[in-house]
């Protein structure tokens, strides 16, 4: 038995196995997830963009492999740990989208570069460029490490503040031993969840113009970027309209959590993606007439977004309410006589997929009422 995949391994392939899961369990509907993978890949092909989806959403090398097999040219990672996991499981074209700045992590970056296929990383500071170059020389690396200038398009988290700073940093990279300037990253994370398409488009248009000016300056300097990467699930049908980005790094489309389910992702108001990620829980108490208690609470969901939504198994109109670390309530609507029993299963849509996934060790992949496979979330954690 594969004990490292948890207590539900004996249920794989058994009819009705889903209803017998030890809970709380993070479940992934395979059909919906694959549909989402294909839908985003098709969009990128139609709009002449490459797709380098973000692994910070799923944190699983097995899922990254499926995205690459579907046509993605590589994978984005937010942390050095995610990047190490992807590279060591054979994923090519890894782009680290957050600056790596500490000495210990830069050493890991250079070591990873020596065993990776087409590793890239963003920077936003000349001191980081110098530190990476020093480590590159110290470890005797022969191949140049490709760096992108991280350009701030309004998020104010990381990135060069303006076109002048971006051009100066690109020149610094180009002139530094052991490194090569390959492109620009511009991620407007603060715009992804604006629900109205037109409002989101208008704000992104202003930031795209700033990016265009920076790219124009780089070309004038003889530093034309080969890669211009950015975008997300919320702007996937916006970014390509500016004819700037060469690739898209969306991630949450795979799951379509509560937040993105509320966003008008397309001007046609049609939803290209469907929810695939759920938390399955068991009813553990029914001693109160107003609600039943399930075994999924604050430790089972990210709490930086909306409240989880009941997806199936609960009476129509029922609402979820947090009841502490280990528990949640299924609150019955007025006038409904249907009641849950101890042992019943309830599934919830997740509020924010990325940090919710980081709470679990495995995906329980389901088709209908069967547990098909269990995939490790092998890139979770923070070291």
What does this molecule look like?
By secondary structure, the protein is an alpha/beta fold. The protein has two domains: 3-27 and 273-376, Beta Barrel (Lyase, Ornithine Decarboxylase, Chain A, domain 1), CATH 2.40.37.20; 30-256, Alpha-Beta Barrel (TIM Barrel). Helix content is 28%, strand content 22%. The chain has helices at 30-46, 61-69, 80-88, 103-115, 126-138, 163-174, 197-220, 258-261, 353-357, and strands at residues 25-29, 50-51, 75-77, 94-96, 120-123, 145-150, 179-186, 227-230, 247-248, 277-288, 291-294, 309-312, 319-322, 328-331, 345-349, 362-367, 370-376. Strand 16 and strand 17 form a beta hairpin. The chain starts with 24 loop residues before the first strand and ends in a 7-residue tail after the last strand. The mean pLDDT is 96.
> CATH fold name of the largest domain, please?
TIM Barrel
Total helices: the number is 9
Terminus-to-terminus distance: 29 Å
Low-confidence stretches are: none
> H/E series, N to C?
EHEHEHEHEHEHEHEEHEEEEEEHEE
List the domain count as a whole number.
Answer: 2
Strand content: 15-25%
CATH architecture of the largest domain: Alpha-Beta Barrel
Mean pLDDT: 96
Strand tally: 17
Radius of gyration: 22 Å
């Amino acid at each position: 038995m594969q004990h490292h995949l948890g207590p539900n391994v004996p249920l794989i392939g058994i009819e009705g196995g889903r209803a017998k899961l030890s809970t709380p369990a993070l479940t992934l509907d395979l059909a919906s997830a694959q549909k989402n993978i294909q839908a985003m890949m098709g969009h990128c092909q139609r709009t002449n963009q490459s797709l380098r989806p973000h692994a910070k959403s799923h944190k699983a090398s097995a899922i990254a492999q499926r995205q690459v097999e579907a046509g993605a040219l590589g994978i984005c990672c937010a942390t050095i740990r995610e990047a190490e996991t992807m590279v060591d499981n054979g994923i090519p074209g890894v782009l680290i989208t957050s600056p790596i700045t500490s000495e210990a992590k830069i050493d890991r970056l250079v070591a990873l570069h020596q065993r990776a296929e087409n590793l890239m990383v963003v920077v936003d500071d000349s001191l980081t460029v110098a530190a990476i170059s020093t480590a590159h020389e110290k470890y005797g690396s022969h191949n140049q490490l490709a760096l992108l200038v991280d350009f701030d398009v309004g998020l104010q988290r990381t990135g060069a503040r303006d076109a002048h700073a971006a051009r100066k940093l690109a020149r610094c990279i180009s002139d530094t031993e052991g490194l090569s300037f390959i492109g620009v990253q511009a991620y407007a994370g603060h715009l992804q969840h604006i629900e109205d398409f037109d409002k989101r488009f208008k704000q992104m248009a202003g930031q795209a113009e700033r990016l265009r000016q920076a790219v124009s300056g780089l070309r004038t300097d003889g530093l034309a970027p080969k890669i211009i990467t950015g975008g997300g699930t919320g702007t996937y049908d916006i970014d390509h309209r500016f004819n700037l980005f060469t690739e898209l790094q969306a991630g949450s489309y795979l799951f379509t959590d509560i937040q993105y389910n509320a966003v008008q992702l397309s001007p046609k108001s049609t939803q290209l993606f469907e929810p695939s990620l759920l938390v399955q829980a068991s009813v553990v108490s029914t001693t109160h007439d107003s609600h039943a208690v399930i075994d999924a609470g604050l430790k089972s969901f990210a709490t930086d977004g909306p409240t989880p939504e009941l997806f199936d198994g609960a009476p129509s109109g029922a609402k979820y309410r947090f009841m502490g670390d280990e528990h949640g309530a299924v609150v019955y609507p007025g006038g409904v006589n249907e009641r849950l029993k101890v042992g019943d299963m309830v599934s919830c849509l997740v509020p924010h997929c990325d940090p919710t996934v980081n709470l679990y060790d495995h995906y329980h992949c389901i088709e209908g009422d069967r547990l098909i496979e269990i995939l490790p979330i092998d890139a979770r954690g923070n070291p």
